[in-house]
Amino acid sequence: MHHDVPALSHDEIHVWRMAWSGTVEPPFASLLAAYAGPDAPAVVRGEHGKPLFPAPWNTLGFSWSHSRDTALFAVGRGGAGFELGVDVERVRPRPKALELAGRFFAPDETSMLNELAPEAVLPAFLALWTAKEAVLKAHGGGLSYGLHRVAFSLVDNLARPSCFDGDVAPASAWQVRPLSLGEDTVGALAWRGAERRIRVFTSPL
Predict the structure, then answer these.
(1) pTM higher than 0.85, yes or no?
(2) By three-state DSSP, how is residue 105 classified?
(3) DSSP per-residue codes, 86-101
(4) How far, in Å, CA of 16 to CA of 120, rounded?
């Protein structure tokens, strides 16, 4: 499938939302090729499996995610090794949310969730989860890096970088933004660097 994509400036991140049947591969490759151009080399895998372009093409950062019937693809331009990550989760009951937070989140985050009213736990948990996943996808370490090593505070249910550990630090170097995807879907976008404008598009399957 061929895609015509809008021009991508260095102060923008483009996010494509598309339906996903679970049986047909989303058109991530064709979207990426449209942004990278015909001379781009093949995508390679980083140390921990993150897909990326080899230098000097690694100024184009990209990430994708899918959950149930929704898929997201994000792309942006920056310096060499530009780090960009996206995550999406469909809203569904998670009766073990507090248990999962206790096992994998930072202690302050778990305490914060335990203090919430029961109906407020799931939205807060998903805001934290998607923010963490987006940062770790951007960094390339994935879940094995440790969700507790990227800690957030919550302000009006918005995840704000608080304390990052290791080579993903400092937290102040990161931008993490929620994506408005409707009441039944939660998404987050993360990149290391200055503030940028986010543009969201819809793509057919």
Answers:
(1) yes
(2) coil
(3) EEEEE----TTHHHHH
(4) 29
